[in-house]
Design goal:
The chain has 204 residues and is mainly alpha-helical. The chain has eleven helices and no strands. The radius of gyration is 17 Å and the shape is globular.
Length: 204
């Protein structure tokens, strides 16, 4: 029981690390929470701090999920990886370092999935990239990616635990992107400098 509690605690603490906030403060003297969208994740890091910082935040946020998912094996505890991964995702979303606020948990969730089901992880990555190519919007790619993961979990893998977690996270991601959805419907959502939508706007 003690090991189980320790694993969940460590997973939460790993997830609660805020590389976007710390990198902004240490190297750019900016509080990323007051820049761009105010989010501490990859997209806002790219937008507010640049591609080097954005890539670094992406890698570290994913590694948080990977590290948390590996904890059961490290401590020889028989717990489903997805449960422990949820603790890391909660840590990212409600970080103790920034007043129990946080990001949208897309990269950290991807890190957990990479350990739990590598094949599905790469399919989700491919779906995400395809959406970026088509729509030039990280928000759209994130929501479609989670929806795809849920559909595959339920109908292809028929993994009950993965299905429940994937659906719950999909609902959560849509909720966290509710402002993005409003901007998408109004045609005001920010685009990345890549993809068909971006190129079509540049061509006008």
């Amino acid at each position: 029981m003690e090991k189980t509690i320790l694993v969940f605690l460590l997973a939460y603490l790993l997830g609660s690390l805020v590389p976007g906030f710390w990198i902004g403060k240490l190297f750019y003297h900016k509080d990323i929470r007051t820049e761009g969208s105010g989010n501490i994740g990859t997209t806002n890091a790219f937008r507010s701090l640049g591609p080097v910082a954005g890539t670094t935040v992406l890698v570290f946020d994913m590694l948080k999920g990977v590290a948390a998912a590996l904890l059961p094996a490290l401590f020889h505890v028989d717990i489903n990886v997805m449960y422990v991964g949820l603790a890391a995702i909660l840590g990212h979303t409600f970080s103790l370092w920034i007043g129990f606020k946080g990001g949208k948990a897309v990269a950290t969730s991807a890190g957990v999935l990479a350990v739990y089901n590598p094949a599905l992880f790469w399919m989700v990555v491919a779906t995400f990239i395809l959406c970026l190519v088509l729509f030039s919007m990280v928000s759209v790619a994130s929501m479609v990616g989670f929806t795809f993961a849920s559909i595959m979990s339920v109908f292809y893998y028929q993994d009950i635990i993965l299905s429940i977690v994937a659906i719950a996270l999909t609902v959560f991601v849509f909720y966290r992107h509710r402002q993005n959805l409003g901007r998408i419907l109004k045609g005001q959502e920010s685009t990345i400098p890549f993809g068909l939508v971006y190129w079509s706007k540049k061509a006008k």
